[in-house]
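The passage that follows is intended for readers who have already worked through the single-chain material. We present the inputs for a multi-component assembly, then the predicted structure in tokenized form, and finally a short commentary. You are encouraged to pause after the input and sketch how you expect the pieces to fit together before reading on.
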Amino acid sequence: MTKLLEAPATDRPTRPGRGTGTGGGAPSGSGRRRPLAAALGLITSPKYGPVTVTALLFVAIFVIGGFRYRGFFSGQVFLNLFVDNAYLIVLAVGMTFVILTGGIDLSVGAVVALSGMIAASLLQTGWSPGVVIPLILLLTSVLGLLVGLMIHVFKVQPFIATLAAMFLARGLCYVISQSSISITDPTFVQLAVSRIPLGAGLSITPSVIIAVVVVAIAVWVLHGTRFGRTVYAIGGGEQSGLLMGLPVARTKVLVYVISGFCSGLAGVLFTFYTLSGYPLTAIGTELDAIAAVVIGGTLLTGGYGFVLGSVLGVLVLGVIQTILTFEGTLSSWWTKIFIGALLLVFIILQKVLTARRR
Amino acid sequence: MSTLAKMASSRLFWPVVMLLVLFAINLVAFPGFFEITVRDGQLFGSLIDILRNGAPTLIIAVGMTLVIATRGIDLSVGAVAAISGAVACSIILGSPDPGSLATVAVAITVALLISLVLGVWNGFLVAALGIQPIIATLILMTAGRGVAMLITEGQILTVNSPPFKFLGSGFWLGVPIAVIIAAVVFGLAALITRRTALGMFIESVGINPEASRQAGVRARGLLFAVYTFCALCAAIAGLILTANTAAADANNTGLFIELDAILAVVIGGTSLAGGRYSLLGTLVGALVIQTLVTTVYTVGIPPIATMVFKAAVVTVVCLLQSPTTAEAFSGFRRRLALRAEKGVAAS
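Having made your guess, compare it with the prediction:
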């Protein structure tokens, strides 16, 4: 029950006490203690601990990389983390919603590939991008809706329902085409190659802006709306949420619609990045997204977690990839082993932190 | 009527119906579907093909059934299969005499031993640390492929070893070796869990681990055993898959096989919520999946589209087994009975 009350901790607890507005920066109550104790409290809290550790880890890896390799410690290397992983950030946002309710979505990788295939094939036949992109977002949202209904109405396990969606999406990719379709549409090419200068020789792509907007909206939805609180409440305890009169059914279905929408959008961003549709792309991306969410401190049983944590998780995965690129001699399979090891560390950390609390 | 109703309420009813429907489609598309011929003392025919190609999935699904019965899941089986194939191939390649029986025996033994270690690792995460099974095995699923690539150094290891190849494509008494191995694994699992109390212990752990521990069931030890057995099954399947192509491919050996195995278990009527399992159902489920793949081939649909059909089958079976559907059905039946009663009363 404490989890339930604590989960949607927005500005409410801090506002009446002191008007300083610590705004979710530290767990309530630890602000008055000495800095060391406050830091310790931050790390050992199940809510903020994993996120803090992830943030520290990210900074540590980045600094180590900066000392080891020339040219690593630059703003552009940092920004490239966003440029290269914009689609993964969007995926991780959708996945965060699902995991917060205690579910899981295995279909996201296949849906990314499917929306890429739809985009490529429709653009090839001369459809306008202004029609294609909304159509893709609509279709993937509908797929999410069907999955959500299957899970809620028919009580199918999220694992199996999204597995079926994964098979469906991957199979439809092959039905559309078995080979790669390249995209030559001028709008898409323009969006793919254009860079937005930030001054001082730094630049980002339009995809990054879209990803950042998605993250901002997700943060607002989760922390500023009733829907967001219901999401946390379902993860904390579905039965309790139901007894409190929260719209559990609607929220549980909507979460999968959001994940479907995010997967579709991520697919569009991915096609901006690759300028082609290929049925075998993004295999295993669902695992990357889940890993990013877990490393970002969202509890897999639901109820605890932040969208910004998931973004940090994506950045950690990205920075590991960058280090391996800079290292040059290390082979790509080390990425998988590293991600596996990181997952292990964070899961054990979560376990320890929540065990202390209970 | 009552026997029909009893059959319809059986958990095996819908999977068997599905299998029969697939057989019927095959028979229409290809009249010689049920024919089995003997050529050079070896059995040939579509049914034999289904059994042989379905063997690895069935072997893994047997292990998966026991894991799922404890309310767990093992996502790492594909990676374990890849690792065992990679280990066996690299040992055979590294030996001075790849064709000798001793080399192959050593390679297989080492591969199986390593899989036991991997299984114990999964069991440790689930039973000792208490991590959710999906996530605990996700770690090995992600890292395992990396480890397999580490062993093969990112290359496809091709071996030329007749005894090893025999494992994948050989025949004994006319029956494919893979089918015999699958039958042995299935038979052993059925014998050990259903002829002793072990199966009931596994189910009790799936229903409530804490309660079964207090009732004197060694829940932890059982979890260890179940995950280890599942990894062993995965390694056996990986060896068969690798031997079949005589090549270890760290990326593609056993890719998606965890999903097929889980599907086989779910189609067979074993609930993912644990506490109940049916090995016979898993057998039917594995056959449904393999027959589906074969059907897609014989009917002439591009094999690439198989996944769409798999999605359809999973969805249909899940919806049919859903409690909501069962309620709707029983409500419908009750209304029918009520109407019949009224009819009797009126006349």
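Commentary: Residues 1-31 of chain A have pLDDT under 50 and may be disordered. Chain A touches chain B through 43 residues (CB under 8 Å). How closely did your sketch match?
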